[in-house]
Amino acid sequence: MNEIKVGLIGFGNIGAGVVRLLQKNAETVQQKVGRGISLKRIADLDITSDRGVTVDPAMLTTDVNDIFNDPEISIVIELIGGYEPAKSFVLKAIEAGKHVVTANKALLALHGDEIYAAAARKGVEVQFEAAVGGGIPVLSAIKGNLSGNRFSSVFGIMNGTCNYILTRMTQEGADFNDVLQSAKELGYAEPDPTFDIEGVDTAHKLAVLASLCFGTKIDFNAIHTEGITAISGIDIRFAEQFGYRIKLLAIGKLTSDNQLEVRVHPTMIPLRNPLADVNGVFNAIHLTGDFVGPVLFYGRGAGQNPTASAIVGDLVALSRSICAGVQNRRSAPLGFQDSSITTLPLKPMEEIVTSVMLRFTAQDQPGVLAGIAGVLGKNGISIESMVQTARHNGGQAVPIVIKTHEAREGAIRAALAEIDSFDFISEKSRLIRIEDNLE
User: Fold this and answer.
1) Which residues does the annotation mark as catalytic?
2) Where is the active site (predicted)?
């Protein structure tokens, strides 16, 4: 075998980036593998549009089976995204005895167990570095150089769209909807940005990361997921008064009683923490291992070139295995052998303990503060500090913002439900959780 033959499914923006990288850095890749890596087939429903790269038209096909049925193709790259037909294509590639590289975090978050099991039966590998953090090599680090550690936590800013929006809202005082429209125009947000701004994309990535870090199966549907659509400029300003910055954070923690916290939500991060200064479309992932201690990975979490970099990195790793004659390899995609993968219990969100910032919009009248404080105290929630502003726009409603000491989520929700029933509350109260110790 003079070259490693590859089939590519999905010739969109990322696929074009992979083609460009393999063409531009062919000599570099060959030096690192010992053999060349060449694309033999590219399958896409649209094979006529200009992608900004030149390929031999004979390589292009609208029939994905041309890749599965080609015995010369050793590795299949799946870049169509989504659940179906991506899942069927990946399973067909595995059944045909081909290794798979994918950037599809949604697929792995929901169907990873089935895909990994199929790969193990066929003795092929599934690599997915680009599924989390774009070009940031965090997954290979967890499975490789950091694999001797027991991880206690993983935190991350993992969605460039949300981080771009929150950055501009923070730095410029811009309106959420205006910044979202700008993000679409710049290509930072999809035409339908729901998965991004509602936290679903981040939760997909957390499911993959937490599985790797803690060696457990994660039920994606059990991840508490909130997006940033309810965050307003007033929340951002009050957070900064208290010494925090709001970020959409993915959080995975192994508790002292061997339960797992997995949650995605807007989070107030201390200004002194490096994550607070991760701005724009950049991502950052913070890990804590028992021997290595805290480690921070930072870089572009999406985009054509960073994602292509991660995909070709997986190609190089698989090609080295092929060149070394490794066959029927029972891979451990989660970094753990099958017999060591467990199912840790997930801590119910109601039992999570955090401090929070509460924002109430209340009528400016006697007894309001006493009423709010009384309900909080009744539910075991103590007040650390409070800010009340003057009346605005000549109206009677004023914001009252309270930072609490740590309290149980269930108690906080119960208190908010009672407070929101009071006649003097003008709008639904807001809750933003705080993470003071990101270790």
Assistant:
1) 205
2) 205 (proton donor)
